[in-house]
Amino acid sequence: MSTPTPHIEALAGEIAEDILLPGDPLRAQVISDRFLTDTRCYNRVRGMLGFTGTYKGRPMSVQGTGMGHPSMAIYATELFRFYGVRRAIRVGSCGALLERVHLRDLVLAQGCHDDSNLVRDRIPGIAFAATADFGLLRTAADLAAERGLAAHVGTVWSSDWFYDPNPGVLDGLTRHGTLAAEMEAGALYAIAAAEGVRALTIATVSDHLLSHEKLPSAEREIGFLAMAELALDTLAGAPD
Ligand code: HPA
User: Fold this and answer.
1) Is residue 5 part of a domain?
2) Distance from the CA of 183 to the center of ligand 1, in angstroms?
3) pLDDT tens for residues 135-164?
């Protein structure tokens, strides 16, 4: 297959090697408007907006991925295999699973416990280890510390479920020190591994699964921008 792909109408060369991947396509627009210059919208297929511009003198793209493993898998595969994306950071939200992880904190997903067949059964008979790129992870963790951002590095639960019908799962994950729940990191890491791409997931804690607190939407926006800037500077500053 060549470009355009079924879900992205850009031509080859219109997407940068470095990319930010928010789930919400409107957030792709917000990141582009706020942080990039000389921007161009390269994708409107299914409303899943994608933009390319310049960040600190480097070509940079930002593409919405939608929610859940299958949607992430479609965009990650097309971006990595057909558009030559080499480094990708998902910027999303998550639900905290530990008392010491608070609303507004950042979670840097070092690895994923995953219940999606897309990741779990990737290699028959193998419990696939979906992990972040170490260079991106180290750069993001160092930058977060320099900026005084509360950031936790560890495992997340990357799940097909938002409304999980199995109540025992959360307890098991909490007992194994899992920081938070989210729904796309595992697919991103598995496809990045298969395509030889470097990937990381950074997520803001938007709700707490133990205390049931939630961030008001205005505050979500402020936290989101700080996270997006951290991710952009990680891509700009990580060793090639
Ligand atoms: N589950 C999955 N993804 C999420 C959650 C959650 O509770 N909160 C924010 N993203």
Assistant:
1) no
2) 7
3) 999 999 999 999 999 999 999 999 999 998
